[in-house]
Amino acid sequence: MTKLSMSRRRFLQSTGAAAIWLPTTVKGYTASEIQALYVDGEMQEDVSKWELDTPCLCVDLDLLETNIAAMESTVNQNGIASRPHAKTHKTPVIAQMQLDSGSVGICTAKISEAEAMYQNGIDEILMTTTNVTPTKIRRAMNLRQENPRFVQATDSSQNARLLSEAASAMGITADVVVDVDPGGHRTGITPGAPALELAQLIDSLPSLNLRGLLCYDGGSQHVKGFEERKNQTLERLAGATDTFDLFNQSGLSTEIFSGGGTGTYNIDHETRGLTDVQVGSYVFMDAQYIDIGGETDKDVYSDFAASLTILTTVLNDQYEGRVTTDAGAKACTINRPWARVKGETGMSYTSGSDEFGTLRYEDNASRSYRVGEKLELIVSHCDPVVNLYNQMYAIRNDRVEAVWQIAARGMSA
Fold first, then answer.
1. Cα separation of 40 and 209, whole Å?
2. Is the pLDDT reported for residue 15 higher than 60?
3. 408 CB contacts (<8 Å, ≥6 apart)?
4. Closest C-alpha to 379, from 410, 338, 326
5. What is the DSSP-derived secondary structure letter of residue 387?
6. Which residues lie below 8 Å from residue 228, measured CB to CB, with a gap of 6+?
7. pTM score above 0.85
């Protein structure tokens, strides 16, 4: 028997107790190997995405750049700005791309995300969640001390006083915005008089600087049907506009009036006074957004392309009508609708098992897969999927162009 050299890029295949080495001309790269090949912002070898170990997260650079440009074009035409939410991508490189394209800043949901962004060179940060514990307030004030462009939200008089005390103790002035509830009762203070009273208190407290207000209506982002989404959005933000007017009448700052999102980016400008939209998912897109329908297509939301995919490998093809892959819940989440096979029709995918995904063929399946073959999945919900990975591969023309660290991955505190 001819002995074969056991290259690290040849894989071991097992069937029962038997194991043989299969020679192959196709290289394969682990995550650490790819990272080692990415030096000073450049790949040292030409690597196809199909050579990547799986499951892994990939972003198509052409589509990503097109999405960012399309968003900036629309908001500019509509007379507002974008302030993208970094909770979607958690990746400083993408945040910088957004800022370079014209965004006025980024948003973060958690103080840990804000810290990770600042540590990686992003300083124009609006934190949209109120910090209520002593630990988080201290962290927020430490960040403010280092970064004079950091702004945080508050939604109660008690919290505003705590922020004032903490800022005063550190000898700094903290910029804040009032978080106004659009009606979902998740966060924020009631619009109108209660929000005005809070703003007036902030304006009077030492060591706080009122910058305006925010009102994010998450409940409207995935309403199906453009007209239905538009009507709900404008109705639910009417209270925020009334609050904006009250601020102005009282001589309070409305420099920032931030809200909106990917599902309503081309509607939000009709909310009078709104300065910017907190868009997030538009950079990647996902199955949840694709299904809501757009202004020109009632069934498919096609304003932005699906740039983010999970690359996965078929592990088992022995059973009729289905194959098993290596991308289960730990790679895809169990959000609904399920992930979808990119570029193919007549098949469905589920990731209900921890480690394994199941692809089932319908009668009109566009193709079938064999063991070892790879396929791409359009993710179900991009935000939690990104949070499962340490890095993503930036792909152009099916070649790996960059390896981006997801610096805020796991930053939920």
1. 40
2. no
3. 86, 87, 90, 91, 92, 108, 112, 113, 116, 117
4. 338
5. T
6. none
7. yes
